[in-house]
């Protein structure tokens, strides 16, 4: 199945098979059975969302779908197909499950400070449980670079290492976008390695396509959030660079991994 195609959810029966207990909000594993076969998926009902004081409008489920639509419409192709459904526990988001390759090399990691391998970027220094200096690092990887640009456009406030998945084909996927598209700059990510770098022509084209894709957001987030999204796209196009970490807002999610 094409995990980028929302048509994979058409005319199926959803059965819940488990729950991800470590998730902040109610998150269920399920199987969608249709004429196409059986699709593993992730279901996040709106009724299981914890209220967030800084995201008072709309739902996290709608923001999950909005992120997918931007990714698909602009050509980033980093977010698995995600749709709104009326599931077993009411309205919510349904996203294709990504089978992670457990043998794949990590793309975000934690190392002893001063031991960053070649081809990796330092992100942030800290101390581990034994008070030893450590550093969060990420690969200098083209797919991650596109993900970093995508996160800047949707104003993702929670790009943890755990939200980056690698499948058996080597494709790198981005999940968990419920806290994105805010009107205020809230970008928090572990992918700061390209901060300040100039956009390539191909990346500039992606941002231009993402600006046009704002029409995909109208029914999912507020008018003010759509305008803020368009303003971010225009700002990045005008400046021609990856954004720098904000000074007044924490730039790294916690925990980072």
In brief:
The protein is an alpha+beta fold.
Helix content: 10-25%
Distance between the termini: 29 Å
The average pLDDT value, as a whole number, equals 92
Spatial sequence of strands, sheet with the most strands = 1-2-3-5-4
Explain this structure to me?
The chain is α+β, with helices and mostly antiparallel strands and 257 residues long. It has one domain. Helix content is 22%, strand content 24%. It has 4 helices and 10 strands. It has a 5-stranded antiparallel beta sheet with strand order 1-2-3-5-4, with helices on one face. It has a 3-stranded antiparallel beta sheet with strand order 6-8-7, with no helix packed on it. A hairpin with a 2-residue loop joins strand 4 and strand 5. Helix 1 packs across helix 3 and helix 3 packs antiparallel against helix 4. The chain is globular and about 50 Å long. The model has no long low-confidence stretch (mean pLDDT 92).
Provide the fold topology.
Layout (H helix, E strand, L loop, with lengths): L12 E7 L8 E7 L2 E9 L14 H15 L7 E6 L2 E7 L11 E5 L7 E8 L5 E7 L2 H13 L9 E3 L5 E3 L26 H12 L10 H17 L18
Antiparallel strand pairs: 1-2, 2-3, 3-5, 4-5, 6-8, 7-8, 9-10
């Amino acid at each position: 199945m094409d995990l980028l195609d929302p048509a994979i959810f058409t005319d199926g029966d959803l059965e819940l098979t488990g729950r991800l207990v470590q998730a902040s909000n109610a998150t269920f594993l399920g199987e969608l059975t249709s004429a196409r076969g059986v699709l593993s998926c992730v279901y996040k009902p709106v009724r299981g969302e914890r209220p967030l004081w800084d995201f008072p409008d709309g739902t996290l489920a709608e923001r999950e779908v909005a992120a997918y639509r931007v990714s698909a419409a602009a050509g980033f192709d980093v977010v698995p197909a995600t749709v709104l459904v009326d599931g077993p526990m009411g309205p919510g988001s349904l996203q294709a499950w990504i089978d992670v390759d457990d043998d794949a090399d990590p793309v975000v990691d934690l190392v002893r400070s001063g031991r960053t391998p070649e081809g990796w970027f330092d992100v942030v220094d800290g101390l581990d449980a034994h008070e030893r200096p450590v550093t969060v690092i990420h690969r200098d990887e083209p797919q991650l670079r596109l993900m970093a640009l995508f996160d800047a456009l949707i104003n993702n406030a929670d790009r943890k290492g755990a939200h980056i998945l690698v499948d058996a084909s080597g494709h790198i996927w981005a999940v968990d976008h419920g806290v994105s598209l805010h009107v205020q700059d809230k970008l928090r990510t572990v992918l700061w390695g390209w901060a300040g770098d100039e956009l390539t022509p191909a990346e500039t084209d992606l941002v231009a396509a993402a600006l046009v894709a704002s029409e995909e957001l109208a029914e999912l987030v507020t008018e003010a959030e759509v305008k803020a999204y368009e303003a971010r796209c225009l700002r990045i196009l005008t400046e021609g660079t990856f954004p720098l970490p904000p000074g007044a807002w924490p730039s790294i999610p916690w925990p980072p991994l």
